[in-house]
Design a protein that fits this description.
heterodimer, A: alpha/beta, Aconitase, domain 4, globular
Amino acid sequence: MREKFTFLDTAGVPLDRRNVDTDAIIPARYLKTIKRTGLEEGLFFAWRYDADGRERPDFPLNRPSYRGGRVLVAGENFGCGSSREHAVWALMDFGFRAVIAPSFSDIFHNNCLKNGMLPVTLPAADVQSLIDALLAAPGCRVEVDLPGQTVKGPKGDVHRFSIDPFAKTCLLEGLDEIALTMKSAPEIDRYERERKAATPWLFRDIPG
Amino acid sequence: MGTMFAKIWDRHVVTRRGGDVLLYIDRQLVHEVTSPQAFEGLRLAGRPVRRPGAILAVPDHNVPTTPDRAERIDDRESREQIEALRKNALGAGVTLIDITDPRQGIVHIIGPEAGLVLPGITIVCGDSHTGTLGAFGAIAFGIGTSEVEHVLAAQSLWQKMPRQMRVTVTGALRPLVTPKDVILSVIARIGASGGTGYAIEFAGETVRRMSMEGRMTMCNMTIEAGARFGLISPDEITYAYLKGRPLAPPPGMWEAAVADWKTLPSDPDAKWDREVALDASALEPHVTWGTSPQDALPVGGAVPDPAAQADPGEKDRMRRALEYMGLVPGTRLTDIPVDKVFIGSCTNARIEDLRAAAAVAKGRKVAPGVTALVVPGSGLVKKQAEEEGLDRVFLDAGFQWRLPGCSMCLGMNPDKLKAGERCASTSNRNFEGRQGPGGRTHLMSPPMAAAAAVTGRIADVREVAR
């Protein structure tokens, strides 16, 4: 069971960069864990800390007015690169529950939905205006309303977003997707029998 | 009439739910980094692995590439992650190709070597470079750990049909211009997110002439253009590569399989959502200057000036990239010195890549002050290279000849850049810190990397090899 998502009313955290890749979100050396938790330390490590391990004061996640914010607002192609789900786990460990961007990489987008994290796609101009507002008035709030599919910016500006209806239901109810799929086990069994008959060469076990 | 992707897709539909299909997954590859939480999820839910015989496990990301690795892995977490893979594979009855196995290597390289990847199949791995395997005319894609768990449990995944893009490449490649240069130029053309939401089929005479190795290099990097899927229709080159491999259809089934595979290619009247055409006849070797794979330029070029960029977001991105890379606009790419050279990775560590690099290294010496690594993609590649004497060529030239693994592609094992070090690399990503915190990566082909090794700077291999 994953966390349910309904509403957020929280400080928005601006990250005015495009092509934020998953190596930047969580460097590879943090992927050696066999758990889904404890990744908060590695989040944006190279951007949060300098070579001596001190916080970089100008990085948004380090600025007191943005602390506790649960919505990250970033540039296009967020989460590009590696498939590491650790990127989503690290963002969630830090406290984020939604990312707003003009576009997301396909794998990162999927990974968000599997974990109860909401990826919100808005037009680039809307995202830039949100980022500009959050930079101009650090600490101001952003509301995310999943049932109503809207984001409300600090100036009262309302932005509608679209989301796949099934993904929405899963987020709202915190559904376990594998349990749902298991209801299709008879169909999978049937498919497998037919496939085995048609392409028997695909059903030889992989030799050790 | 449809695209090859759509034909393979339609064959794998188990059931539908709104716009999604439950897609049957024929095979899954797993490695040590993205699978432990998936196996743990199954254990917690009390679910078995549905088809252990359809899965192959291999450690690659964490493994050291030095000879003593079977006896000792110094990093405790790396050791534990590899150990977890062993336990999970054993517990589930999944075949494991362990560190000491002569076939061990990078997951995307050993799969094809085993004949595991066949035309018309669906195959996944918790790794974004799984698109590599689409070179056989398969739907092959990278997934996250939750999806790995889903496939372990249900041998299927809920998916939406991606949009269809065709990239048609024509013209004969000039000498020392490689599939790596073709794909870097494609990514530069469509951008790092140009393929998001798409499957990209590579077509055209240039692709048809490529070996399976070259085709895998092309499909490997489609994710760097944002596309989860890259694919190439199978042909006689594909069948010749597959015939006789351990998991290829055996003699009694071979003819039927090939007859089936011949129905796969996209129909002439297939509908494409986007088409891109590239004339490769004048293509030059490419090198990246920045921190996104889209930052590729012909080697004769110079570091671009962000001031000339009109888009403020892109201007800002370029400035940031140049600051990270320690480069000044206007610098000729061939004036950039390198500290390290890495020839390896799932992009460029197959036999053809090593031959091409060795041809440049032969009779030359690695420049003073440069450390150069050659890391074969698998034990079988290593063995073949040694039979051809390539190891001697590299060692005589002053390169290090290592054991197979992901090595310096991603900073998870002892092969890493130090902060500020600059590397000529045949890998796939030049992201900040990708090869180690503070490391600076320039992506290029194997012969270009060998040329950088012997000159100590980024060099036009066509001049070096003259």
